[in-house]
Design brief:
single chain; 331 residues; mainly beta; four-stranded antiparallel β-sheet; 6% helix; 45% strand; globular; binds beta-D-mannopyranose
């Protein structure tokens, strides 16, 4: 087990964990009891996937994408003692304080990320506005009340992911400009803000590359600060004869100038291969949205949506992931 302290962050001794299966040398391995959240955990849900979890009061809290049986996409709050068994509220989050112009045009919320930043938990998600997708932003102190801010960007945009601290004195966010449909392109960009309201100084971070990440890419969980750079887990998409295939990879971004990519995995870390990743409402999707990390041991628990239907869990060691990313890098 790695003992050096690479992660710049808090210890999380109660992180959900399962050792790598005997005989495997993969840098990322699946939880043997996946999916961790079934599609019908609440009676009204069609599917629960692409969801975000975070440590909260020595336990865990989260914001979940539940598509209901009318196939409305909304965000629900949830809590867990162990990160494995979740209680999800029966009703969607009622976001307070949104400007009427923003609220009136809402047609759905999906793919949340949750980020602890300074004194509160921020939620970013893909937010419908004027019939188009863009990045919604809100905060909560307690996972009871949520206060919505302005959308971060103009449409069309998806996969907005905050950094967990200011960089060069500014709030920082990754995003993926898109179109309004099943976007056949997509690069990751970096933007900064003095106040969480005005976003600018946009910089290109990464473009699609070969193979599993050849069509489009998008940031996944909130980046993890390490002595080797920001560890970014992301999704990459390949267009096959049978449609899109979503896999998971990793990159190391420069700590002070995160739009500079230092290393990036040529092979995927996880691709849809298990039944629950290959069969569902949208087949062949592995879509990471959250990661828990224990700085003391470097243990990582990655939550990902599987086949747009259920939520699954995978594990890794940060040090091994960094070594793998460096040794198998595109750049
Ligand atoms: C993307 C998003 C995700 C989804 C993925 C695969 O465009 O809509 O929510 O998981 O497609 O369908």
């Amino acid at each position: 087990m790695p003992q050096k302290r690479t992660v710049i962050g808090d210890d999380l001794p109660n992180i959900p964990w399962e050792d790598r299966p005997a005989g495997s040398s993969d840098p990322v391995w699946r939880y043997s009891r996946n999916p961790v959240i079934p599609r019908d955990l609440i009676p009204t849900s069609n599917s629960i996937f692409n969801s975000a979890v975070i440590p909260f009061k020595n336990k865990f809290a989260g914001v979940f994408r539940c598509d209901d049986k009318c196939r409305r996409m909304q965000l629900y709050r949830g809590e867990s003692d162990d990160g494995l068994n979740w209680r999800i509220s029966p009703d969607p989050i009622d976001f307070k304080g949104a400007d009427q112009e923003i609220a009136a045009y809402n047609y759905g919320r999906y793919d949340p990320r949750v980020c602890w930043l300074e004194d509160r938990y921020y939620v970013t998600w893909c937010n419908g506005y004027a019939g188009y997708p863009t990045i919604g932003l809100a905060y909560t102190y307690d996972f009871e009340e949520f206060f919505q801010l302005e959308n971060a960007f103009l449409p069309f945009n998806r996969n907005g992911v905050l950094f967990p601290r200011k960089i060069r004195g500014k709030y920082a966010m990754l995003s993926r400009p898109s179109d309004m449909g099943h976007t056949p392109f997509g690069d990751i960009f970096y933007s900064e803000s003095p106040d969480m309201l005005h976003w600018g100084r946009h910089r290109l971070v990464m473009r699609p590359a070969g193979g599993w990440q050849s069509t489009k890419i998008g940031a996944g969980p909130v980046p993890i600060e390490t002595s080797e750079g920001w560890l970014l887990i992301y999704h990459g998409v390949l267009t096959s004869c049978n449609g899109f295939v979503y896999s998971m990879g990793a990159a190391l971004l420069d700590l002070d100038e995160p739009w500079k990519v230092r290393y990036r995995t040529a092979p995927y870390l996880l691709s849809p291969q298990k039944d629950y990743e290959c069969v569902g409402d949208v087949p062949n999707v592995v879509f990471p949205c959250a990661a828990l990390c224990d700085a003391a041991t470097g243990r990582l628990a990655i939550y990902y949506g599987a086949a747009d239907t259920v939520t699954a869990l995978a594990f890794a060691y940060v040090d091994e992931l960094i070594d793998f990313t460096k040794e198998n890098s595109l750049c």
